[in-house]
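Handout, tutorial session.
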Amino acid sequence: MGNIKLTIATMLKALIALCLFGYSINALANDGVQNHSATSERFKVEFTRDKDYKCTQCHKDSKHTLAESHGQNVIDKVGKEVNCTDCHSNIGPDHRDGASTVVKYSDAQSRAGTDKHQLPPELILEANAACTDCHTPERLREANWTHDVHAKNLTCSNCHTVHGTDAKVLSHDHKAIVGMCVDCHSDFNHKAKE
């Protein structure tokens, strides 16, 4: 019985010594820590709910384009800012399937205000009658319309298949896409040779 009491006493002393050692190490570690006041901005976290977050992971410049092309006009009309899903809400689960075949295109390449000679909007609207039933002519006539390709005598159906089964610009044949694009976008010629 004496050995048990001695063993318990030794273990108790070792446990107390270990606790004191741990406390002293903790106290030494805390001495070197700088005390940040409650006003410190270093650890401030802001939570933002961005409805367009998923969109802008691939369409990185779309936030700027959306603000520029819609901006204050839409806010004045609907009384709030718009986001991608206000108009593009029917995105399916296979939306990204063709992502690897997409060639980057900057809307600045077709922006009005360059030295292009534009066709009269009436001729374009006549050729695009099937499109303008939903896409209003007033919107298409605006000077900063992103798809302003009228100088090349193009209509919507040159690039967009009107309710067809295969979309011309979303084809899975990479060379066919590039071939169609480089007719106007000569800066993509290096892609056509791949």
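The second record follows below. Compare its token runs with those of the first.
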Amino acid sequence: MIVGAMGHLATTAMVGVSAMKHGLCGQTGMVTAMDPFSRLDLEDPGDLIFGGWDIRKMDLHAAIGRILGDIGPFDATQIPIIQNDLDAIARNIFPGSAFNSGSAIQELAADRSMLNGRSLVDLIAGLASDIERFKADNDLENLVVVNLASTEPPIDGPAADMSLAGLERAIQTDDRTAVRASTLYAYAAIDAGAVYINFTPSQCAMFSGLVDLAQKKRVPLMGSDGKTGETLVKTALAPMFACRNLNVLSWQGYNILGNMDGAVLAHAENKESKIRSKDKALARILGYRPHSQVSIDYVPSLGDRKTAWDFIHFEGFLNTRMTLQFTWQGCDSALAAPLVLDLIRLGLFAKQQGESGLMQHLACFFKSPVGVEEHDLHRQFQRLQDYAEQKIKQGSRDGLLEALN
């Protein structure tokens, strides 16, 4: 189930799965399509059943119409081929909650009742009921909930990283300042035994109390903030400066983007969450903090296209100063959607393996991987490869023992 099911990213992922199932596209961009991950017993993308929540009153077909033209050669003439799949998904989408999400998100809500009307207990119970109905209607045993909603403003102070006891106390006492909508989705999902993925930078979607709840309920979870563009390049390039002992003096980044993500990030309080997430990696990789600034601006005409320009000023032998610049131009949803599918498949696999708590081997997918200090993309990816190889060897041993018995 997807939080933000009518958004560009969610609809791109859902259209992509249906297109794969009908032979309209391949798996380019999916990490799990590569060796060694393709040798794991992962769920086939075509077998995934989608549903979720959205706060906007929008027809799924209209939502999909917005992404056509941005996602490669897929166009309206192919929609009839996947029509039945889309109709089934539409039946699985429920009205969402915009509780305490900040004005930028609350302005999108189709119904004022999605805002602050009911108690926290009732809001969570409503989401839990949606989860149970989705599972029952589709005869599902396992479930993944992925947060793809717009970025919420951060919460500072003691509520910024509540314990499980503090979180449950806030829910029971209806402390409406301590949590945001993303907290309620996460709590309902984990409490229902679902794998939980936070692909957003929203701080309230992934704090320590939720991690503790996942341990208690024995379910896997991971986040936060999908790494798809500028930060992906940054975490691949920064290790080069470190391993050549080049001193980075300044790293300036400027991002422009359209779509709903850009519109919400045009609000200063929402942008703060994103900038905090994007700004963490550099110092961790280099071992020191150069002058660094990340700027984000909304350019409506870009639609789902994103451009990032980075200027790196560095110092070499004899204090010689040099520069490196790069420009990244990508389709935001087409970059992120295959990673969402990877995370769903790997999350289901972890659940089937009896794993619980943070899936730290998935750090390479996130700008701010919870519980992980390593931000070097190459080392993060090696950890994921090692995990896959270990599981493959373990499966071979188990198969041999079963054959011998």
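Points raised in discussion: DSSP finds 14 helices and eleven strands in the chain.
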